[in-house]
Amino acid sequence: MSKGRAPEPLDFFIWTVEDVCLWLEEINLGSYRQAFEENGVNGEYLESLSMFTTEQILHFIRRCHMKWGDFITLCKELRRIKVACLKGEQEVRKPWWARSCLSVVFVSMAQRNRQSRVVSLKLET
């Protein structure tokens, strides 16, 4: 994703560490930015939180120096994004990285297949 620009919610599982930190600012958890950067928390890691054991969750909270209430807020916001994606409530926007001809294809495919886990791919040229 681009610096300073909010990451696309549909793609949260491919967010970089920087994207996660921008999202933390959006959900008023920006005080954890440095801890997330130091621990390399990216979108794939956030996606895997739902499969963590209690011990792993406690380890994550300790590593990031999170308050329990803030961890719950983080989980609620992740769930909100996932549910909105599955229900098709997220706005489909063209990817910042795609050329205009690819953007039309992306948006129409995403609108037809809103329940797909992978909504976009970054094409390397």
TrEMBL record:
Residues 15-50 form the SAM domain. Signal peptide: none annotated. This is SAM domain-containing protein. It comes from Zingiber officinale. The lineage of its organism: Eukaryota, Viridiplantae, Streptophyta, Embryophyta, Tracheophyta.
